[in-house]
Specification:
- This protein has 2 helices and 4 strands, in the order αββββα.
- The termini are far apart.
- Helix content is 39%, strand content 39%.
- The protein is an alpha+beta fold and 64 residues long.
- A 4-stranded antiparallel β-sheet has the order 1-2-3-4, with helices on one face.
Length: 64
């Protein structure tokens, strides 16, 4: 039988945007975005979450 943590992880999606690890995890309020393990924000839908994550990664790359 799967544990709660395994079930929760199965609903999340991980991507690499410009070489930076980004995780999208849906919940009751929307989609939570994690960039390199740090919580960025909660967005109402997946399209907006992906758009804002890519924008954040661009800004992060510009600072380095």
């Amino acid at each position: 039988m799967k544990s709660f943590a395994q079930v929760r992880e199965s609903t999340s999606t991980e991507k690499k945007i410009d070489g930076i690890k980004v995780k999208f995890q849906p919940n009751q309020k929307g989609v939570v975005v994690y960039v390199e393990g740090d919580k960025l924000d909660i967005y109402p839908d997946m399209n907006r979450a992906v758009k804002m994550a890519s924008e954040f990664v661009k800004q992060l790359k510009g600072m380095k």
